[in-house]
Design brief:
Strand content: 25-35%
Helix content: 25-40%
Bound molecules: S-adenosylmethionine
Structural class: alpha/beta
Shape: globular
Order of helices and strands: HEHEHEEHEHHEE
CATH superfamily: Vaccinia Virus protein VP39
Radius of gyration: 16 Å
CATH topology: Rossmann fold
């Protein structure tokens, strides 16, 4: 039931989210997927993950989603490439520092209470030249309607949509954390002028000027 609701509500966005990022990752990339969810994306993308030889660690705090995700990993024979953990990104530690090529927040960043603390920790998990990628809905102007609706949606749908993300706040946070936006792509326009965007960032000390 929980998975069916989740699939129904966010499947289009999930498709776009993983299509965009999996196409972007070069072969042999090592990726941390923060908030991998129920792994529904594996249905459409298992071949691509295999062909590109991607290695993905998926974190999530929702046991039900992860049970479903583990089933799909077995169905598509991805055990050697996709590993999921029931753990919050706030307490996770990678096998060693500078371990990942990409840290990916696919519609999960807006759910974190202390985004700044998470970025501070996560930056250290990147290899030199590594990137932090965000896929999320953002708003340019304050939307009181969305601020009212979003927190209430969880009670109706069981899916947590987190808080409304404003472009100026998000960019200010990137600036504080010395994460330089390298690319910001508008992928889809949503209701109430929301924009579904993929933002690729890199810690400043890794950027060659
Ligand atoms: C909107 S869902 C997106 C899931 C998936 N990326 C997708 O596109 O289908 C956000 C996910 O982030 C997870 N999440 C929320 N807070 C988290 C945290 N602190 N650490 C890891 N995952 C978290 C939620 O449980 C949920 O599965």
């Amino acid at each position: 039931m929980i998975n069916n609701l989740y699939n129904l509500i966010i499947s289009d966005i999930t498709r776009l989210c993983y299509k965009s990022c999996l196409n972007y990752f070069p072969p042999d990339s090592v990726i941390l997927d923060v908030g991998i969810g129920n792994g529904i994306m594996l249905k459409k993308n298992h071949s691509l993950i295999k062909v590109k030889n991607l290695r993905i660690t998926g974190l999530d705090i929702n046991r039900h989603y992860l049970e479903h995700c583990r089933k799909l990993i077995r169905v598509f024979g991805l055990e050697s490439q996709v590993d999921v953990r029931h753990q919050s990104v706030t307490t996770y530690d990678p096998p060693r520092q500078a371990y990942y090529d990409y840290i990916f927040f696919g519609m999960s960043f807006m759910l974190l209470d202390d985004q700044k603390a998470v970025l501070e920790r996560a930056k250290k998990w990147l290899k030199p030249q590594g990137e932090v990628i965000f896929f999320q809905t953002m708003f340019k102007n304050r939307s009181k309607v969305m601020e009212f609706i979003k927190p209430r949606l969880k009670f109706l749908t069981t899916v947590d949509f987190g808080r409304v993300t404003y472009e100026s706040d998000f960019y200010a946070l990137l600036d504080q954390e010395n994460l330089s936006p390298c690319k910001d792509m508008l992928l889809k326009k949503n209701v109430f002028k929301g924009e579904c965007r993929m933002i690729i960032t890199q810690p400043e000390h890794y950027i060659q000027h």
